[in-house]
Amino acid sequence: MSVRTRPTTVFRPRSLDALHHARLRSLHNQESEMVEWDELIVSGPDVEDRHTLSQLARMSGNAYVLPGQKNWYEVDAAWNVSFPFGWEDESDGFRGHVFFSSDNSTIVLAIKGTTLNGPTSKKDKFNDNLLFSCCCARVDISWVFRTVCDCYVHGWRCDDPCLSDALIQDSLFYSVGFSKRLVDDLRLMHPSSNIWLVGHSLGGALASLLGSTYGFPAVAFESPGERLAAHRLHLPLPPVQKSTVPPVPVTHVYHSGDPIPQGTCTGFGSPCAQVGFALETHCHLGKSIVFDTVGKLGWRVDVRKHIIRDVITKILEIDGVEWEEGRDVPLARAEEDCVDCFKWEFGHFKDDSGEDSPYQG
Length: 361
Hints:
alpha/beta; eight-stranded mixed β-sheet; Rossmann fold; 18% strand; globular; 12 strands
């Protein structure tokens, strides 16, 4: 067997240089600039097909290891070539594998997620806390541990320009993804191939952000909400049409027993906070496929169910479960009217020197 495809509408920036210029102008000067988008129909993954999702989840799991190592997942014989990226520097957290179909018609870029123990762990945690926390990984207003930026003001207030500035750092994997020009190189070397991006957890969020930038289909497994990160990165997105969500070619896949993509592994006493993570966002770009493992399989909500192995072997590759009426894969739905960090107030609360402005209001 192999993966199934289906026609997928994507919006690609007519000029990547213009997109980057518009993003930086918005980031540095708070000025908007029009980006021209081309609407195209490409062959994307059939996300209603369970085997296709299973293959992409296996590739996402493989982004954590090298071939032949423990936890490497075999994929269909149709994927007969793969090569690693980002493994040369042991501490380089932006890494994974590129998979080629036998006829080179489809290329899948699989991006590694967070590793708790290993040479990339420090950078992984930094990216998680910067992208998916409400305010610099300050879990609550009494938080005394180290944060990833200095944008907290007082009470439940956080400085928005400061947050955007923090996301310029060279160690941010989204920026590394551009500086490596991996997607650009694949696009130029294989202009007639379909390029998909996939990943698990942090890797899935990065796949989504890069897929939204380039207009390539992306599938993310068990990823924290990255919609707020896209806003703070000042990422230009295609104009909203019928939905309230920008039409990006992203599909999130997660289950109800994992608190991380739902933004519920939060608070001072949560398992995430106890190991130094503030994974607070839950609003996703694109559409989401949510497997109700709590209702259908009787699972408890448990952060230990976040691992990709459970998604592969206990959800996508088990038979006999009707997840929704007449469907063995739930329908992908946009997360309309989703709000992140509702307790926080974001604004320009610091003066140009970086000092807190006098309290007003």
